[in-house]
Amino acid sequence: MANYSSVTTTTTAVGVSHPLAANELAHACGADTAWVVQLVEVGIVQVGTADTPPERWAFSSNDLQCALEARRLERDFGVNLDAAALILDLQHEVRRLKSVLRAHGVG
Q1: Is residue 17 part of a domain?
Q2: Which of the ends of the chain has fewer CB neighbours closer than 10 A, N or C?
Q3: Residue 49: which CATH number?
Q4: How many domains does the chain fold into?
């Protein structure tokens, strides 16, 4: 007789009405809150004001996407967060410029 195990998956919708807390963002990326603080320090994700403590920060789905990409760059290429911030910024700029070119019928 086959043995079957059960797996339970929990999902959370992330949006304007349901932002992620710093510890939730960290957990989603397999990191700790100190890592999220570093993401804010290098500009990968933004918070309202620098004076707000990390326990009160709120992050969007876009922030989650950027954080996961930074984590992937760290893991796959061994880059530090300063380099990840630069890479992500350049990727966003390339996407923006491609969009402008398409809007003008080029490419």
Answers
A1: no
A2: N
A3: 1.10.1660.10
A4: 1
Is 96 inside a domain boundary? yes
DSSP state string for 37-61:
HHHHHHTSS--S-TTS-GGG--B-H
What are the tens digits of pLDDT across the range 58-106? 999 999 999 999 999 999 999 999 999 999 999 999 999 999 999 999 9
Cα separation, 103 vs 89, whole angstroms:
21
Report if residue 1 sits inside a domain: no
- Using H for helix, E for strand and C for coil, what is the string for 9-32? CCCCCCCCCCCECHHHHHHHCCCC
Question: What pLDDT digit, counting tens, does each position of 9-65 carry?
Answer: 666 666 667 999 999 999 999 999 999 999 999 999 999 887 899 999 999 999 999
Buried b (16+ CB within 10 A) or exposed e, 6-21: eeeeeeeebeeeebbb
Range of the domain at 44: 22-103
- Whether 13 maps to a domain, the answer reads no
Tokens encoding 83:
């380099």
